Automatic annotation (TrEMBL):
This is Phosphomannomutase/phosphoglucomutase. Residues 370-445 form the Alpha-D-phosphohexomutase C-terminal domain. Its cofactor is Mg(2+). Belongs to the phosphohexose mutase family. Keywords: Isomerase, Magnesium, Metal-binding, Phosphoprotein. Pfam families: PGM_PMM_I, PGM_PMM_II, PGM_PMM_III, PGM_PMM_IV. The keyword Membrane does not apply. Coiled coil: none annotated. Residues 8-130, 152-250, 259-365 form the Alpha-D-phosphohexomutase alpha/beta/alpha domain. It comes from the Bacteria.
Length: 449
């Protein structure tokens, strides 16, 4: 019996190659996934990590061993795999460890139409099958066909966001040696956008910096290049290119909440009165702006499975998260950093102001960003914080996802436990920097006390 508890996460499978993840166990995952979703075929893609092609091939063996065909799309970003799943109406498997270091790899799974597979939507069943052994299939094996879908993916995205009429733009793109280096050239081909490439060489050892733009240290090179070449904006993709971070012409980072609000306004212009999803850590400016433009803001927990589920239940046209995941109904409710980037550039190029002035419309409050604290007992520390604020005049407390406290002056914070580490994650927002700093320090004093 295998112990898979260390590699089967809430939303995907991820572990150290060789120690936790090898061809044998991946083959079993392929067979188990096939048992869950059936045929007629499963689409498989992979990133640029050295281990990815071999692991993807082992997974395909597990699928074909159960009598089901495989469509191998080869090198792909995660949102390209979602596109293939939606376009071909097939379940999919993407081999990537996103922004994790080179020694890691993993599998992101989806049902037909890019529908998510997580612990509550099939992953636990897959884990159970692999743990106890997948039954052998005695019929004829399936076959593997190769299909390059980069051009189809690019054409589809350009059909959702029209950039042909915008003013010419110069943008710097830092692909971090990840899959953005594979997709950006095709997506931007023929558009009035001059792309200044950085680290487009596919290299799963990440020789220049981690492919994790959530860490400000990994934006430094992009910011320097934006200033050097006088670019209108900069884009930074993570390793599997499903997330995109934006910096303005001054090389200042643009908050993902502001991008969420911008895209929401653009989508509401196409479909007035529609529902927009935002997670509970996005800026309070997001639901305010959605409502001001006639939309229906709906708040949800953090995490793509919750976002996609709520989008399906409400018919929402768009959803955004503080972590730079952006979800589009017209993209099978899947997330695509590239699509969000195209929206941002279309908005920028459709008017004459620089990006900093454009985005000022969508930025209203001071935010702390996510602050992690290592604690011995997550629940005890959260109870201590709740007790500290429970009797505060006008305070409202909810536990939709961790602990959220809203104060009478409009400031708020959310404190959430990590699922995988002994950490508490704090996000604070207030009317100005001084108020945010004071509230942040007050909460941290209890968390770390």
């Amino acid at each position: 019996m295998r112990d898979l508890t260390g590699i089967v996460k809430a939303y995907d499978i991820r572990g150290v190659v060789g120690d936790e993840l090898d061809a044998e166990v991946v083959r079993e995952f392929g067979a188990a996934f096939t048992r869950l979703v059936g045929g007629p075929a499963i689409v498989v893609g992979h990133d640029m990590r050295e281990s990815s092609p071999g692991l993807a091939a082992a997974f395909a063996e597990g699928v074909t061993g159960q009598g089901i065909d495989v469509v191998n799309i080869g090198l792909a970003s995660t949102d390209m795999l979602y596109f293939a799943s939606g376009h071909l109406d097939l379940p999919g498997a993407m081999f990537t460890a996103s922004h994790n270091p080179a020694r890691y790899n993993g599998i992101k799974l989806c049902r037909s139409g890019a529908a998510p597979v997580g612990q509550d939507s099939g992953l636990s069943e897959i884990q159970e099958l692999v743990t106890h052994g997948v039954p052998e299939f005695l019929g004829a094996k399936g076959s593997v066909t190769e299909r390059n879908m980069v051009a189809d993916y690019a054409e589809f995205l350009r059909g959702l966001v029209d950039l042909r009429g915008i003013r010419p733009l110069k943008i710097v793109v830092d692909a971090g040696n990840g899959m953005g280096g594979h997709t950006v050239p095709t997506v931007f081909e023929g558009l009035p956008v001059e792309v200044v490439p950085m680290y487009f060489e596919l290299d799963g050892t990440f020789p220049n910096h981690e492919a994790n733009p959530l860490d400000p240290a990994n934006l430094v090179d992009l910011q320097a290049k934006v200033r050097e070449v006088g670019a209108d904006a900069g884009l930074a993709f993570d390793g599997d290119a499903d997330r995109c971070f934006v910096v303005d012409e001054n090389a200042d980072p643009v908050a993902p909440s502001a991008i969420t609000a911008l895209v929401a306004v653009r989508e509401l212009a196409k479909e007035p009165g529609a529902t927009i999803i935002h997670n509970l850590i996005t800026s309070r400016a997001v639901p305010e702006i959605i409502a001001e433009h006639g939309g229906n803001p709906v708040r949800t927990r953090v995490g793509h499975s919750f976002i996609k589920q709520t989008m399906a239940e409400t018919g929402a046209i768009f959803g955004g998260e503080h972590s730079a995941h952006y979800y589009f109904r017209d993209f099978w409710r899947a997330d695509s950093g590239m699509l969000a980037a195209l929206h941002a550039l279309a908005a920028l190029g459709g008017q004459d102001r620089p990006l900093s002035e454009l985005m000022a419309e969508y930025t209203r409050y001071a935010a702390s960003g996510e602050i992690n604290s290592t604690v011995d007992d997550q629940q005890a520390r959260m109870r201590a914080v709740a007790d500290a604020f429970r009797d505060r005049n006008g305070a409202r407390i909810d536990e939709l996802d961790g602990l959220t406290v809203e104060l009478s002056d409009g400031s708020w914070f959310n404190l959430r436990p990590s699922n995988t580490e002994p950490l508490l994650r704090l996000n604070v927002e207030a009317r100005d920097t001084a108020a945010m700093t004071a509230l942040r320090d007050e909460v941290l004093a209890v968390v770390r006390g």
